[in-house]
């Protein structure tokens, strides 16, 4: 039987937001070329600090001095293939959380094989959509089983479902369809998860808080925007101005 999320309340989400702003964690984001600018601006608007270098001769040092690492496979060029294992090694040697976002592994067997190798390096968090999860689970191992001995698994969709050790589960229903009409919003959301986990004592709660923070800001932005073109600046403003009252009024969960 699955267990409900521990204290997934507006107060918990608000504490994580406050900690990000107080501590300004640096997230080293090995993300795709399409997402780099938005990811950096989302982290800055939230109160965190981005670093983005993919150079193999620098990535160890950048990661070792960061508070969390995001590895996003969106544009998987040769430089990123070389740099990602080096950054992961540095994160683990310094006991920094490592978020893996295996974008589009369902489109390429070679990409799926590379992602499987990175999963073997023990990410702290695995962020996937249902198609990506299927591509990474050829033996139909579900996310709850994966989370028992591996990373906290966040399966994103209309309702985001989070799975943690001890059969912890949460179903988070915030967000807005307009977020899917602008490129790289999902990738930037992975960086918010990384920042949240960096300041949280509990990885599962940090993932839930990061998803909620980003998606609540997305709701606020979508209500103000006229369409995809105005969504991005509204999203940055919503993250910058997000407060405890917004979280208390909007946090939505469903039975896990």
Write the layout of secondary structure elements.
Blueprint: E1 3-4, H1 10-23, E2 26-30, H2 36-46, E3 49-51, H3 59-64, E4 68-72, H4 78-93, E5 98-101, H5 109-119, E6 125-128, H6 130-136, H7 143-149, E7 152-155, E8 160-164, E9 168-172, H8 185-198, H9 203-224, H10 228-241, H11 244-250, E10 253-254
Parallel strand pairs: 1-9, 2-3, 2-4, 4-5, 5-6, 6-7
Antiparallel strand pairs: 7-8, 8-9, 9-10
Helix pairs in contact: 1-9, 1-11, 2-8, 2-10, 8-9, 9-10
Portion in strands: 15-25%
Q: List low-confidence stretches.
A: none
| Global mean pLDDT | 95
Fill in the CATH topology. Answer: UDP-N-acetylmuramoyl-L-alanine:D-glutamate ligase
Helix tally equals: 11
- In total, the number of domains comes to 1
Q: What characteristic shape results from the CA principal axes?
A: globular
Query: So what's the CATH class?
Result: Alpha Beta
Share of helix among residues?
40-55%
Number-wise, the strands total 10
Task: Give structural attributes.
single chain, 256 residues, alpha/beta, UDP-N-acetylmuramoyl-L-alanine:D-glutamate ligase, 10-stranded mixed sheet, 11 helices
């Amino acid at each position: 039987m699955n267990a409900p999320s521990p204290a997934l309340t507006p107060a918990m989400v608000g504490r994580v937001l406050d900690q990000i702003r107080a501590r300004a964690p640096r997230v080293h984001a090995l993300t795709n070329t399409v997402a780099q600018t938005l990811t950096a601006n989302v982290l800055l608007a939230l109160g965190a600090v981005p670093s983005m270098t993919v150079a193999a001769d620098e990535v160890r040092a950048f990661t070792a001095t960061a508070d969390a690492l995001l590895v996003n496979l969106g544009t998987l060029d040769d430089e990123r293939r070389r740099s990602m294992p080096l950054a992961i090694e540095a994160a683990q040697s310094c006991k920094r959380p490592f978020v893996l976002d295996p974008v589009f592994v369902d489109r390429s067997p070679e990409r799926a094989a590379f992602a499987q190798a990175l999963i073997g390096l023990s990410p702290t968090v695995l962020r996937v959509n249902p198609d990506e999860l299927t591509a990474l689970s050829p033996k139909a191992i579900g996310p709850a089983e994966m989370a028992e001995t591996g990373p906290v698994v966040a399966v994103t969709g209309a309702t985001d479902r989070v799975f943690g050790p001890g059969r912890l589960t949460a179903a988070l229903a915030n967000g807005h369809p307009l977020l899917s009409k602008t490129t790289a919003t999902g990738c930037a959301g992975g960086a918010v998860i990384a920042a949240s986990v960096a300041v949280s004592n509990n990885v599962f709660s940090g993932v839930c808080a990061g998803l909620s923070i980003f998606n609540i800001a997305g709701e606020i932005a979508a209500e103000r925007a006229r369409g995809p073109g105005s969504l991005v600046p509204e999203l940055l403003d919503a993250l910058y101005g997000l407060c405890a009252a917004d979280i208390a009024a909007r946090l939505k969960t469903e039975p896990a």
